[in-house]
Amino acid sequence: MFAVPLPWDFQPLASDRIRLDLLRDDDLDDLYAMQSDPDVCRYLLYEARTREQVTEVLARDRAATRLAERGDFVQPAIRDVDGRFLGTMYFELHSIDDRTAEIGWILPPASRGRGYAGEAAALLLELAFGELGLHRVFAELDPRNGASVRVCERLGMRHEGHFIEHMWLKGEWTDTGHYAILEREWCARPVSPRR
Q1: Is 92 exposed, middle or buried (0-12, 13-18, 19+ CB in 10 A)?
Q2: Any residues with CB less than 8 A from the CB of 145 and at least 6 apart, and which?
Q3: How far is it, in rounded angstroms, from Cα 9 to Cα 22?
Q4: How far is 144 from 54, CA to CA, in rounded Å?
Q5: How far is CA 130 from CA 1, 4, 28, 87, 135, in A?
Q6: pLDDT at position 192
Q7: CATH homologous superfamily for 12-187?
Q8: In angstroms, rounded to a whole number, what is the distance separating the alpha carbons of residues 163 and 114?
Q9: Running DSSP on this structure, what letter comes out for residue 183?
Q10: Which of 78, 114, 144, 149 gets the most CB atoms within 10 Å of its CB?
């Protein structure tokens, strides 16, 4: 059986327009502005956070730098070429034996509509299916989040399921959309989603 080359210690990833690197203490103001915005949090699993909560989350996520076993994650910052904070990515190992991971993204309103989420996700998918040797990467999202659905589609992710009233969240039953892409599908893509 093919073994995933773990552990993997986070190393910055870059394209022409963006860079993924670890969160830093000086990201607190930007992270707080994003995670305290009710519109940003509308389709996330948590309510808008207080500054104290974001401080705790930043400490936790800043320390997540290694992928070694199931449940390990990294949550790097997306930055432009000048180092300006544009949002965050999420990448979690779900199964070592099945070589599967989950991917996600959060961007504040000022960073949306410019292709940053897709470009950042492409960097992580290239890592996943290249250096890490994974077989499958999936994303779960609220289907009402049209922008995230479009990112999945542009990445070539397949819509695998729509779970109706899948969870009770924020005072209502909400659906969950499931998208995924396989290594062979990623490698067969004719065009990269990078700009």
Answers
A1: middle
A2: 42, 43
A3: 11
A4: 25
A5: 17, 11, 32, 24, 10
A6: 52
A7: Gcn5-related N-acetyltransferase (GNAT) (3.40.630.30)
A8: 29
A9: H
A10: 78
| Per-residue model confidence as pLDDT tens for the chain (195 residues) | 456 688 999 999 999 999 999 999 999 999 999 999 999 999 999 999 999 999 999 999 999 999 999 999 999 999 999 999 999 999 999 999 999 999 999 999 999 999 999 999 999 999 999 999 999 999 999 999 999 999 999 999 999 999 999 999 999 999 999 999 999 999 998 765 443
User: 135: exposed, middle or buried (C-beta count within 10 Å: 0-12, 13-18, 19+)?
Assistant: middle
Beta bridge partners of 102: 92, 138
Q: How far is CA 105 from CA 3, 9, 47, 97, 98, in A?
A: 27, 20, 16, 25, 23
Q: Take residue 105 and report the two structure tokens written for it.
A: 């993204």
Q: Would you state the pLDDT for residue 86?
A: 98
For 81, what's the count of Cα atoms within 13 Å in the CB-facing half-sphere? 3
| Amino acid, res. 32 | Y
Instruction: Report the pLDDT value the prediction gives residue 194, as an integer from 0 to 100.
Output: 45
Q: Whole-angstrom Cα distance, residue 41 to residue 36?
A: 8
The length of the chain is 195
Give the model's pLDDT for residue 2.
Answer: 59
Partnered with residue 87 across adjacent β-strands are 78
